[in-house]
Amino acid sequence: MISYRGVQKVHRAIACIIKLSGADKMANLANARNKVLEAARAGASLIVLPECFNSPYGTQYFPKYAETLLPSPPTQDQSPSYHALSALAAEAKAYLVGGSIPELEPTTKKYYNTSLVFSPTGALIGTHRKTHLFDIDIPGKIRFKESEVLTPGEKLTTVELPEYGTIGLAICYDIRFPEAAMIAARRGAFLLVYPGAFNLTTGPLHWSLLGRARANDNQVYVAMCSPARDMSATYHAWGHSLVANPSAELLTEAGESEEIVYAELNSESIENTRKGIPIYTQRRFDLYPDVSAGRDN
Ligand SMILES: O=C(O)CCC(=O)C(=O)O
């Protein structure tokens, strides 16, 4: 078993930003900058932006807004979001999970929904390409097929934050797959971060349930960060950015409008939760060594 490495007690360790994302990419980046700097001024050392924070959300928008992730130094013209996020993390002197952006891989010409993580010096320290694409069809309510445009990523992601420990990173629909969250926790993550954009059908049903469930399964913190709701957009985001603690209580939850929510994380909370209800060490891995071995398709 990989044990939890510990996170120092830090004032306002995490800030989740819920923000409106309109059609103007540069305006979205400018809005993100204001909000990230506001969170940093309030003492946040890890700041999270929402899924597709630099564009409207929808398969029809991915190709238009997609950027190629060039090796550093990225140029303003070719990778404006990469460049802006890197500079912003350095300006804020904070870790920055840059929500997600549509990515174009230039060789294969494939599109991905990709999250970039930057250190307080602006270095890119992690990337995650959404591994489970949001393909659902609930008659009369919502149909969405990311796979019409996007390709799924092929790896699960953890990122090392040297002062604090490991975080697990995944995007929105990925949260429905508890296996991925558990693998991150078993790799020692103290926090699972999900930029996401649920909707008015599945948001009220499952958003906070899933955040609390992944926290409860793994006795870790969970942060979910959504765009604000815009009823004039083609996709109506649920909003409600939140942070759950290792006992699956909500420490904070936003509404549907632009807002920043803050939470303080500490290692004792993980340790005490695991001491009190010791499922973390009681798991019978001998009975379920490989869940995927039982699949029939
Ligand atoms: O799982 C859901 O209900 C919503 C997922 C979603 O909106 C997404 O993956 O972008």
TrEMBL record:
<dbReference type="InterPro" id="IPR045254">
    <property type="entry name" value="Nit1/2_C-N_Hydrolase"/>
</dbReference>
<dbReference type="GO" id="GO:0050152">
    <property type="term" value="F:omega-amidase activity"/>
</dbReference>
<dbReference type="GO" id="GO:0005739">
    <property type="term" value="C:mitochondrion"/>
</dbReference>
<dbReference type="InterPro" id="IPR001110">
    <property type="entry name" value="UPF0012_CS"/>
</dbReference>
<feature type="domain" description="CN hydrolase">
    <location>
        <begin position="10"/>
        <end position="267"/>
    </location>
</feature>
<comment type="similarity">
    <text>Belongs to the carbon-nitrogen hydrolase superfamily. NIT1/NIT2 family.</text>
</comment>
<protein>
    <recommendedName>
        <fullName>CN hydrolase domain-containing protein</fullName>
    </recommendedName>
</protein>
<dbReference type="GO" id="GO:0043605">
    <property type="term" value="P:amide catabolic process"/>
</dbReference>
<dbReference type="GO" id="GO:0006107">
    <property type="term" value="P:oxaloacetate metabolic process"/>
</dbReference>
<dbReference type="InterPro" id="IPR003010">
    <property type="entry name" value="C-N_Hydrolase"/>
</dbReference>
<dbReference type="GO" id="GO:0006541">
    <property type="term" value="P:glutamine metabolic process"/>
</dbReference>
<dbReference type="GO" id="GO:0006528">
    <property type="term" value="P:asparagine metabolic process"/>
</dbReference>
<dbReference type="InterPro" id="IPR036526">
    <property type="entry name" value="C-N_Hydrolase_sf"/>
</dbReference>
<dbReference type="Pfam" id="PF00795">
    <property type="entry name" value="CN_hydrolase"/>
</dbReference>
<keyword id="KW-0378">Hydrolase</keyword>
